[in-house]
């Protein structure tokens, strides 16, 4: 078994051909997928809305506004990011995880003693010891601001890996800015309102790799959570696994190779004073196919203070959240662990 800093890579476990997952990966019964009789663990046949960005501005505002209000997650198409680049990103990810020898992958291991460090890892670093482990390996890249970006920390297997990540980072930043403008406009705010409240993006790109799991009914690839920053842009391969919670039901976000999944995160919920909600989502596993996703997170700087936009506050719509320094929000997230929306709920007034 190959281990880095006491951390076992899930891929090594899966390749060992184990028929039973180790106990630290077994979810408590109420968090397991597809378990009867708890109705909210069954996946529904609904699907998230699709926003076609080539539509008329008024259609885009309407469909996107409704998607943000009701789901906090939606697909976008005609988004301007070359489809070839989406495919290129999936390709370098799968090549790194599946074709790069484990010994070489481990050279890029993240720093196990610091929060959200860059590199190859398995365990999200939360302080609480009772956290069940996710059936997932990942590679996290720090891509923005430029002062955090150091491509020599990233794999160069395959040889175009770093170039693809650089190009992808720029396209995702532009798309995130465009979406925050549309989101602001859909609330009849000045288009720069949410973007200015967030400030310059801290962008991280996380490639997640979920090996086949011998007991998918007992595990989660990634436990239920809402993302802590402002907006997440995600692509996936053709294997299902991502689910979003809607009206107490888990809904599959089925793969659409040319679309980007947009997931509103907690700071956008705070800035919009809860008019738009961050989406609770999770990843489930399966016993036959490995799954890959690429999530690009856009967050405020740790020193940024986030509060509900004053234009959305009135006598009939009082502030719902306390203001928070983003760095404090992140520390509390890592101390308490994700678990649904308990972090943002801690700011409710
Ligand atoms: O793999 C996925 O589809 C979900 C990834 C995710 O939610 C995350 O990294 O925060
Ligand atoms: Fe997420």
From TrEMBL:
Database matches in InterPro entries: DIOX_N (IPR026992), IPNS-like_FE2OG_OXY (IPR044861), IPNS-like_sf (IPR027443), Oxoglu/Fe-dep_dioxygenase_dom (IPR005123), Plant_2OG-oxidoreductases (IPR050295)
Database matches in Pfam families: 2OG-FeII_Oxy (PF03171), DIOX_N (PF14226)
SUPFAM superfamilies listed in its UniProt record: Clavaminate synthase-like
MF terms in GO: metal ion binding; oxidoreductase activity
Domain Fe2OG dioxygenase: residue ranges: 200-300
Keywords assigned by UniProt, alphabetized: Iron, Metal-binding, Oxidoreductase
Family: Belongs to the iron/ascorbate-dependent oxidoreductase family.
PANTHER family, alphabetized: OXOGLUTARATE/IRON-DEPENDENT DIOXYGENASE
Protein name as catalogued: Fe2OG dioxygenase domain-containing protein
């Amino acid at each position: 078994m190959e281990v880095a800093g006491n951390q076992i890579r899930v891929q090594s476990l899966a390749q060992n051909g184990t028929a039973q997952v180790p106990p630290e990966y077994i979810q408590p019964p109420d968090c397991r997928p597809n378990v009867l009789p708890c109705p909210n663990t069954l996946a529904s046949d609904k699907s998230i809305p699709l926003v076609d960005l080539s539509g008329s501005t008024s259609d885009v505002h309407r469909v996107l506004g409704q998607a943000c209000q009701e789901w906090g997650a939606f697909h976008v198409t005609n988004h301007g990011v070359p489809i070839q680049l989406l495919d290129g990103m999936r390709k370098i990810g799968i090549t790194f995880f599946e074709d790069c020898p484990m010994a070489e992958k481990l050279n890029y291991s993240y720093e196990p003693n610091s929060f959200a460090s860059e590199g190859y890892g398995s365990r999200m670093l939360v302080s609480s010891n009772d956290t069940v482990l996710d059936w997932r390996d990942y590679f996290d890249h720090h891509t923005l601001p430029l002062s955090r970006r150091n491509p020599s920390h990233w794999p160069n297997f395959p040889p175009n890996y770093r170039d693809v990540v650089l190009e992808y980072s720029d396209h995702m930043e532009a798309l995130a800015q465009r979406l925050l403008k549309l989101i602001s406009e859909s609330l009849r705010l000045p288009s720069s309102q949410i973007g200015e409240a967030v400030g310059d993006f801290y962008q991280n790109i996380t490639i997640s790799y979920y090996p086949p799991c011998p007991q998918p009914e007992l595990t989660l690839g990634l436990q239920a959570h809402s993302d802590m920053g402002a907006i997440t842009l995600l692509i996936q391969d053709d294997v299902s696994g991502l689910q979003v919670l809607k009206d107490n039901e888990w809904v599959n976000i089925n793969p659409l190779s040319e679309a980007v999944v947009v997931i509103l995160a907690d700071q956008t919920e705070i800035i919009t004073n809860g008019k738009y909600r961050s989406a609770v989502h999770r990843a489930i596993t399966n016993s036959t196919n490995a799954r890959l996703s690429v999530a690009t997170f856009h967050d405020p700087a740790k020193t940024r203070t986030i509060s509900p936009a004053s234009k959305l506050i009135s006598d009939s719509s009082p502030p719902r959240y306390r203001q928070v320094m983003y760095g404090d929000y992140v520390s509390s997230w890592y101390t308490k662990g994700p678990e649904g929306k308990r972090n943002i709920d801690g700011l409710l007034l």
